Amino acid sequence: MGFGRPPHRSPLLLAALVSVGACLSAQAPSPFDSTRAYTHVRDQVALGPRPAGSPANIKTREYIIRTLAQAGYQAVEQPFDASTPVGRVKMANVIATLPGDRPERIVIASHFDTKPIDEFRFVGANDGGSSTGALLELARVLKSRPRPPFTIEFLFFDGEEAWGEWRDPNHTYGSRHYVTAARSAGTLASLKALILLDMIGDRGLNLRRDTNSTPWLTDIVWAAAKRLGHGAHFLDEPFPVEDDHIPFLKAGVPSVDLIDLDYADWHQAGDTLDKVSARSLQIVGDVVLAALPDIEARLLKAK
Fold first, then answer.
1. H-helix or E-strand containing 217?
2. What is the pTM of this model?
3. From the candidates 160, 202, 210, 244, which is the catalytic residue?
4. Which of 4, 152, 156, 177 would bridge 98 by S-S if both were Cys, CB 3.0 to 4.6 A apart?
């Protein structure tokens, strides 16, 4: 076989190829590693049911603290006793802090407990596991970035789930305690925004706009999703949600809840690891990372 002259390419075609190459090179791989996040979900599920006050719940807290330490954080527990329908239950939130240029805080949060259910074994792969796995990976990614303009707090709530029926005050024990403690400590005013993750790992990811969430914060997150091409998973459909963000909203903290309640295995025995998709974890992780600079810019502008 001989070698002839290279095929002729017009200047317009060459320009187009250069443009495409530049676009491809600009699309750097995402720093969010959904494989790591999925592994964190798997490790939680391996502990079994993790309701507040259980030995597996304590092991989950230890896992969170150990994983955060590997990423360079010195996490702390916020222990408290909660009055529940089954009596007093010892609980503890886990908090890790990434210092920023300013002391004011942006909180990214998830609950790590699973619903107490006696009728069947509930391991909460999506409900509790997915958001906690994503939050651990977000903490790792943000630790490796330049110092942020605001301090970022990674907050893992205990006791989000209710014993039996969801009825005040039988739910959101950890988030209510955190807000109460912040008010008592005089640090509530430094909380500038909350991004809450909950049930974000199922394969048919459909996140609707929670009507209880702060509109401007929701707008920023949904705009980031559309910008990344994930608008099909962040639906412009209103849907009211009661979750760990409500105590923050009542305290005047702008908050947004990312949750998919369109999930057939919610609080069912089928909420198992096979229902969780690394792809869904990747989408939510990327959207949060893309939205964060816009949230920071909005807060700086408000100064």
1. helix 215-227
2. 0.90
3. 160
4. 152
Active site residue 286: no
**pLDDT recorded at residue 28:** 72
76 Rama class: left (phi>0) / alpha (psi -120 to 50) / beta: beta
Q: In what order do the strands lie in the sheet with 87-98?
A: 76-84, 87-98, 150-157, 102-111, 191-198, 255-259
Catalytic residue among 127, 153, 158, 198: 198
Given a contact cutoff of 8 angstroms between Cβ atoms, the answer to whether 259 and 200 are in contact is yes
Q: For 244-267, what is each residue's pLDDT tens digit? A: 999 999 999 999 999 999 999 999
> Is domain 31-301 annotated with CATH 3.40.630.10?
yes
Q: Is 113 a catalytic residue?
A: no
Extract the tokens encoding 85: 């329908």
29 band by pLDDT with thresholds 50, 70 and 90: confident
Count CB atoms within 10 A of the CB of residue 38: 24
**CA angle, corner 249, sides to 248 and 255, nearest 5?**
85
Mean pLDDT of the chain: 92
pLDDT tens digit string along 129-173? 999 999 999 999 999 999 999 999 999 999 999 999 999 999 999
User: Region 213-217: what's the mean pLDDT?
Assistant: 98
